[in-house]
Structure formats: structure tokens, C-alpha cells
Design goal:
CATH architecture of the domain at 208-347 and 443-477: 3-Layer(aba) Sandwich
Pfam family, one: Lactamase_B
Largest sheet: 8 strands, mixed
Helix content: 25-40%
Region (Disordered): 454-513, 545-617
Shape: elongated
Biased composition (Polar residues): 466-478
Biased composition (Acidic residues): 499-508, 566-576
Radius of gyration: 30 Å
Distance between the termini: 47 Å
Biased composition (Basic and acidic residues): 454-463
Strand order of the largest sheet: 6-5-4-3-2-1-20-21
Strand content: 15-25%
Number of helices: 19
Number of strands: 27
């Protein structure tokens, strides 16, 4: 494989940009946490390749062709399953991008990995580049780290690739939690950008906050009682626990010293933590000096059968007043012998299934690639195009200026994008000056932000009984206890009958209409508890995803009406009083019908209503708008003469996106439409025409003339349009509310359509 930097003019010019994006799983037969992003350039054989994580069996010799070049590796965090193959994947001059925290502790991490896991350094530490802002990896491709919780130093990545004047944003979550970790922020979904592609780590678990709360309670309770306390955990988990003890000292009015021993101490120091209550002992000779009454001592490994924790446990295991608290993440059997009080907890720092699903419903990606899991059925009901092939085939994701439909989507038409600017382009430029979430951590963590129940801890330390402890086992006589369930194993199960107990699949938090793309008709209202009731793999997507990859509205026989869930409420915004005197009350019926309205005399009202489902997430809004009849006629004639097979709603949505793009770029000053008709008459003709208009009940003279002109331009005129604007709806509101040129949101739509017609006419 070649690892020559892609910025070399021999690979691509510095002003070039990718024209294709494809991907392949790098180790599907192992952990499946590693993916290879491939960026193709016009006129260049081979791809610029960016590897995300290098787990077990990630072999680039197998994946890269002779003309492909590895331009970098994104290391999400310093857990062995994400860097085990890293030394074999990189050669000289290939940068490894990681958070500054991960880069700072890499030397210590790799030293231990070399001793225990036969992972040789081979220049990895020198190749690491700590990034906390935008970094260019190859022509037209940049990346930015995103906080991810999960473990100290863990990050995801936002990868942005240019496509001419357009650009597109890809989010790679890596392993993540929504909660903070050791003071560093958790994964956030309120990104000031439009995420079109999501690489989602699909590992899930029961709430890790429960295990952390109980383990912390055990340790603090024993220490405040004056006993010697040993917490055994992996080195990074140990650092996390130490910061939680510091947080408990600050919030719960306790003063418990912490002593970190061995590798845990080294990583704590390398990461730059500094809490008054924490002492670090990287090397020790006498275990008794590390175990003192009233102090919480933390060491690894997580099960005390080796190295520092084994030596320390050997010192206190026969002390009936001492306590051993084991935080097990690997599935290894805990130690349950000895005379001290021994407890253990299964800890998996991953989101719950409902938390995982919320990432998709919040970010609204067009396409989602699942990683760190096996099987294809478990998440096929997500409102996005889901990829989970389970092999290392190269799959195209973006080419020819549009997103590629997955191979399982049949009978589709490609979208004509020649006259449109997609939301992903202008959202990034419009919000370019807004910062993405910072990696900065707080000096002292907040227990609630870390997922720890501070009230339960306070009750335990005050001697009040705790009846909510979960996942806990205790032994003082060596008798085995039942293992708590491994909830995190559901993410890697290959069974198609696993029940998604954490998810509310009857109301999954999505605002989208769901569309069938292949196979037989299915019932899209999936019950909350189901086993084998899912449709055939990956054949349901959202309206947004369908419009972006199917080329308009897909098959005509699927219809365009948006079904209303019987559990959802349909609401209608109150129209602007400068547009119509009709006040439309919000609908509270279950069937989605509009509420009754009454109206006084209205002169040619414009109809505009927004329908949405409100489930606590950002609503995806559908706009019903009445276009100016002349604009509607011109639009119909343009569609007919250019053989544009998109629906009218899609054309209007694209026009609005392009218009808002230009407004946000300051390329035009918003103004009302000029394509209109105003009739001025005098004398008897004025009186005669006014009487005729009133008799015909056609509003006013201007409206009557507009209608006749429109009818002369186009037959079978459709002026009322239903269009799905997605996230553009909120931007449309903002433009309407901040610019006096528009009395209603429908006026903004008219201006957008007029600009679209003028732009396409000049292009023709």
C-alpha cells in the first residue's frame, strides 16, 4: 500500500476536491468498529483513504489497491479494541489524528499494550497528532473532533468534504455516551451543521450511571466509615472514578482522599488532571503504603489477578473491615473470595438503545452506516437509509453530485440536482463562524452530568437505606453470586429476535413520514415489543432521505400524501394577520383533521400551514402554501418544457433551499416578488370591472387578471403545494420574521420560486 500524503500534487492538486465518497468496513469479522472512507478525485486512479480506528484484524494490505493512498487515521480513543492493529496500518508520514488528551497519554498506553498485548509501537506515538479544531487531511477534505463522553480523551469526528461550491458533512460517532466522562463533554447532537451521513457506533448498554452510582456509593461508604477501600478498574475507568470522588467531595460535603496507583496514576498525570484530594503513585514497593484507612485506592487491572491490583488486593483481602469494589468492562469473572467485603459491577460506557436512536432522530442524516455491531435487522426501522452489510465490500455513498441509494433500494429515480443547492452546503457556510462543541473539560465534574445519582449517594452516606441498587453483588464468604445481565451484549447479538426493550419503537421520536423502498407492503407502526415483526432488511426510510437519494418522490404508486400516526397530533400554525383574517386554531383531534375555521371577507388569501409532530425533538415541518398563480403557471411551464420529473413539492423545496442559501451567504437582499400584476383603470370602466369582479366573486380585479394570465400560460394549474422543507422550515421562519419585505412565509416561498425561475431561464 502507498502512504504518500494525498496533498502531494502527484495525487491531486491542492485546489482539487473529491467527486466521490465510498466506504468499506475494515474488520467486519472482528469488532467491526473500523471503517475506511474513500475519497475519489476526477482524473485520478485510486482513492485518498481515511481509516477510522484500527481494531483487531484491520488489514489495509487487504483493503487498499495499488493506486490507493492512506492519508490518515482517525483514532477515536485509547481503548485496545480501537488501536490494536494501528502499528500495522501506518507507515512513515501517515498522521494519526486524535484528541489532544489521547495524544498526550499515547506513550504510556502503548507501553502497557506492548507488554501485555503484543502491540508494538512502530512509530505510532510519533505519528499521533492532537487536534482540537479543523484540520485538512487531503485536498477538499477536513476533519474536526467532537466530544464523545465514553472514556477520557474519547472523541468522534466531523468530516467535511468539498464538492465544487458545495460541501457535505459526515459524522463519525466512535464509541460514545451522552453523559460527560471525567469532566469532558458527552456526545452532542445539536450541531450547527447539516449532517448528511452518519457512521454510528451501535453498541448499547443499560444506563452506566447506575453502576457508577452504586460502585461510588460502596467506595465512599466504606471510606467514610474508616475502612480501607480498593477500587479495581481499567486505567481510564480508574481515572474516571477518581474524578467522580473529587466531584462527590465537592457536592456532598465529604472529604475522601483518593490514591491512584500504577498505570492509572500515570494516565491521570498525563491527562493533566489536578484535584487536591487525589494523590498519584505510579510505582510502589510496599502495598501497605498505598492502602490506608479512610482512603479510596484505585488501581488496575479491573479484576485483581495481575499487576498492581493483585498486589494490593493480596494485602487487604483478609481484612473484614476493608472493601473491594470491582468495575468490570471486559466480561471477565470477578474475584469473589477473601474475607473483605467484595462487590462488583458490570460497567459498559455506551448509550441505551433509546439514546442511540435519538442520535438519528436528532441529526436526521440521509444515510447511516452502523459499526461495532453485527446483523442488519435490528435498526432497519430508523428514519434513514441504514447500511449494515457485514462485509468489506466497497460501497459508493456519494457520486455525480448526489447521494447514492443503497443496493437494497429498488425502482427509484435519481434526483436532478443541476439547479439546486442542498441544505448541507449552505448550513455549513452559514454557521461557519459558530463553534462546534468544545473538547474542553470542566475542572471538577458534575455528578448529574456524569450520569451519577447524587441523591442516592447522599442518602447512602447519611445512613438512609438505598432500595434502588441495581447490578450489584456482594460476597464475604466466597460464595458465588449470580452475574448481573450483560445488557451491552445486545449490540453485538446476531439474533434477529432480540427484543429492543430500551426503545419505544411505537413512537420512535421521528417526525418523518416513512416510505417503503423495496419488498412487500409492511405495517410501519411497529409495536413497542416485537421479535420477528420487522420488515425485510432496510426498506423503510424517511421523507428527507427518500427525497435526497431517490430522485424526487420515487414510484408514483406510492403516493405523496403524508400519513398521520393515530398517536400523533397535527398542529397548524396561526397564519400571519397581514395575509388572512382567518384564525386557525391548533388541532387537538386524534385523526389529524384540521380544526373548524371561520372567516370574514378575505381578499385573495394565501394559504400556509405547518404540520408537525411534537415529541420533544425538533419538529420536521411540512408547508402547505398557495403560490402566486402566475409564478405557479410559469413553474408548471418550465417543468413541462425541461422534462423535469420531480414533483411540484420537491421543486419548491429545492428552490427554497437555494434561496435561503443565497440569503445566508449575503448574495442577495431579500425582497418581495416582482412577478405580479396590478391593474389601474379610471372612470366608468373602473366601476364596471369592480361590479363584475364582485358578481363573479373572484376577490379583486388584480386577482382576476392574474388568474386569467396564469390560465393562459399553463393548463391544469396547481397553485396549492405541499412541500417537505425539513430543517429549512425553521430558517424560512427566521427569514420571514427578520425581513420586512415578507408579510407571510408564503411570500418567502414566492420569492424563492421567482429566483429559481430567473436563474434557470438565464442558464437556459
Amino acid at each position: 500500500m502507498s502512504t504518500e500524503p494525498a496533498t502531494d500534487p502527484g495525487f491531486a492538486g491542492l485546489d482539487d476536491h473529491p467527486v466521490e465518497l465510498s466506504y468499506q468496513h475494515a474488520n467486519p469479522s472482528a469488532g467491526n468498529e473500523s471503517v475506511l472512507l474513500r475519497f475519489g478525485y476526477e482524473g485520478r486512479d485510486g482513492d485518498a483513504c481515511l481509516l477510522v480506528d484500527a481494531g483487531a484484524d484491520a488489514s489495509l494490505d487487504r483493503l487498499l489497491g495499488p493506486e490507493d493512498r492512506l492519508v490518515g487515521v482517525c483514532l477515536t480513543h485509547a481503548h485496545l479494541d480501537h488501536y490494536r492493529s494501528l502499528p500495522a496500518c501506518i507507515d512513515e508520514d501517515v498522521p494519526v489524528y486524535a484528541s489532544p488528551a489521547t495524544a498526550a497519554m499515547a506513550g504510556d498506553v502503548l507501553d502497557v499494550a506492548s507488554e501485555r498485548h503484543d502491540v508494538t509501537d512502530r512509530g505510532v506515538a510519533d505519528a499521533l497528532v492532537g487536534v482540537d479544531g479543523w484540520t485538512t487531511v487531503c485536498p477538499g477534505v477536513r476533519l474536526h473532533p467532537l466530544p464523545a463522553g465514553h472514556a477520557p480523551g474519547a472523541v468522534g469526528f466531523l468530516v467535511r468534504f468539498e464538492d465544487g461550491d458545495d460541501h457535505h458533512d459526515v459524522v463519525v460517532t466512535g464509541d460514545f455516551t451522552h453523559t460527560d466522562c471525567a469532566g469532558a463533554p458527552g456526545f452532542q447532537t445539536d450541531l450547527a451543521t447539516d449532517v448528511e451521513l452518519l457512521f454510528l457506533t451501535a453498541a448499547t448498554a443499560s444506563d452506566p450511571g447506575d453502576a457508577l452510582t452504586d460502585a461510588l456509593g460502596d467506595a465512599l461508604e466504606r471510606a467514610t466509615a474508616g475502612g480501607r477501600t480498593l477500587v479495581t478498574a481499567g486505567a481510564l475507568v480508574g481515572v474516571h472514578v477518581a474524578t467522580l470522588v473529587a466531584a462527590a467531595n465537592a457536592e456532598l460535603d465529604v472529604s475522601v482522599p483518593v490514591r491512584l496507583v500504577g498505570q492509572t496514576a500515570k494516565l491521570y498525570d498525563a491527562l493533566g488532571y489536578d484535584h487536591d484530594a487525589v494523590e498519584t503513585v505510579p510505582v510502589f514497593e510496599d502495598p501497605r503504603t498505598c492502602l490506608t484507612p479512610g482512603t479510596v485506592t484505585i488501581a488496575g487491572p479491573e479484576v485483581p489477578v495481575d499487576d498492581s491490583s493483585e498486589r494490593l488486593y493480596g494485602e487487604l483481602k483478609d481484612d473484614a473491615d476493608a472493601a473491594l469494589v470491582q468495575l468490570v468492562t471486559s466480561g471477565s469473572p470477578p474475584v469473589q473470595t477473601g474475607g473483605c467485603v467484595s462487590t462488583h459491577y458490570e460497567l459498559s460506557m455506551h448509550p441505551t438503545e433509546s439514546g442511540l436512536r435519538s442520535v438519528v432522530t436528532d441529526l436526521e442524516p440521509i444515510q447511516t452506516v452502523l459499526t461495532h455491531c453485527r446483523g442488519t435487522d435490528e435498526y432497519n426501522d430508523l428514519p434513514t437509509c441504514v447500511w449494515s452489510p457485514g462485509d468489506d465490500t466497497v460501497y459508493p455513498l456519494y457520486r455525480d453530485d448526489s447521494w447514492c441509494p443503497p443496493p437494497w433500494m429498488s425502482n427509484v429515480r435519481r434526483r436532478d440536482t443541476s439547479e439546486t443547492t442542498r441544505l448541507g452546503a449552505f448550513a455549513g457556510d452559514a454557521f461557519a463562524d459558530l463553534s462546534l462543541p468544545s473538547l474542553d473539560r470542566v475542572s471538577t465534574p458534575n455528578l448529574a452530568a456524569e450520569g451519577v445519582d447524587a441523591d442516592r449517594l447522599a442518602d447512602r452516606l447519611a445512613g438512609r437505606p438505598d432500595t434502588t441498587t441495581v447490578g450489584h453483588s456482594e460476597s464475604t464468604d466466597g460464595s458465588p453470586d449470580a452475574e448481573p445481565p450483560r445488557d451491552d451484549q445486545t449490540a453485538t447479538s446476531t439474533s434477529d429476535s432480540d427484543t429492543m426493550s430500551d426503545a419505544d419503537t411505537s413512537d420512535d421520536g421521528t417526525d418523518h413520514e416513512l416510505y417503503r423502498t423495496a419488498g412487500a407492503d409492511v405495517d410501519i407502526e411497529v409495536p413497542a415489543d416485537f421479535e420477528e415483526t420487522l420488515p425485510s432488511p432496510n426498506n423503510i426510510i424517511s421523507a428527507r432521505a427518500r427525497r435526497r437519494v431517490l430522485g424526487g418522490d420515487g414510484d408514483e404508486d406510492e403516493g405523496t400524501a403524508t400519513p398521520v400516526d393515530e398517536h400523533e397530533e397535527s398542529t397548524v400554525d396561526e397564519p400571519d394577520d397581514r395575509t388572512t383574517d382567518t384564525e386557525t386554531a391548533p388541532d387537538t383531534t386524534d385523526d389529524g383533521a384540521e380544526a373548524d375555521t371561520s372567516s370574514d371577507s378575505v381578499d385573495s388569501p394565501k394559504v400556509e400551514s405547518f404540520t408537525s409532530t411534537d415529541d420533544g425533538l425538533e419538529a420536521t415541518t411540512t408547508l402547505d402554501v398557495e403560490l402566486d398563480p402566475i409564478l405557479a403557471a410559469l413553474l408548471e411551464r418550465h417543468r413541462a418544457t425541461t422534462d423535469d420529473d420531480r414533483s411540484l413539492g420537491t421543486v419548491v423545496a429545492d428552490a427554497v433551499e437555494a434561496y435561503l442559501d443565497a440569503v445566508l451567504r449575503d448574495e442577495l437582499t431579500p425582497s418581495a416578488t416582482t412577478t405580479t400584476v396590478s391593474v389601474t383603470v379610471d372612470g366608468l370602466l373602473d366601476e364596471t370591472l369592480t361590479d363584475a369582479v364582485e358578481t363573479a366573486d373572484v376577490g379583486d380585479l388584480d386577482a382576476a387578471v392574474r388568474d386569467h394570465i396564469a390560465a393562459a400560460i399553463a393548463d391544469d394549474l396547481q397553485t396549492t403545494v405541499t412541500t417537505d422543507l425539513g430543517r429549512c422550515a425553521s430558517l424560512l421562519r427566521a427569514v420571514h420574521e427578520t425581513h420586512d419585505a415578507f408579510e407571510t412565509r408564503a411570500d418567502v416561498v414566492d420569492a424563492a420560486v421567482e429566483r429559481y425561475l430567473a436563474t434557470t431561464a438565464s442558464a437556459d
